[in-house]
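Batch manifest, entry 17 of 40.
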Amino acid sequence: MKTILEILKILKVIQMINKMSVFECDLLHLKKIGDRNGHITSINNNQEIPFAVKRIFYLYDIPGGESRGAHAHRECHQFLVAASGSFEVLLDDGITKRQVLLNRPDLGLHIPPGIWASEINFSSGSICLVLASHEYNEADYLRDYKDYLKYLENV
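Output type: structure tokens
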């Protein structure tokens, strides 16, 4: 017969399995159409990305080597593209960290809710395009890492 402590450990493992992981942040290749005169890449709701876009914004004029982000969302999905230049995204699910380089406009990163993400090491002149599944809502943001870890315990 299992002790209560053993059962609690098993429940904790099951809970961790059911939580979002950094390995569920997909790096997606987007179709590129063009020739020597230039290229175009389009993104359609629920086709190239796994959600409908309700908000679009972009980060620019970020000095080389600087960082942005450092937050998680409760409900909002995000899709990040290096529209110009390059940057890295440091992903964290409270257990595992993963770093992804974005440096092509036909490559994007899907970040589901519940993942802490920081955009780091921007190249000079880079542009980070963000497609979001929700309109801006401050209550959806987890901006303090300690609060994020507490949130994970209760999910």
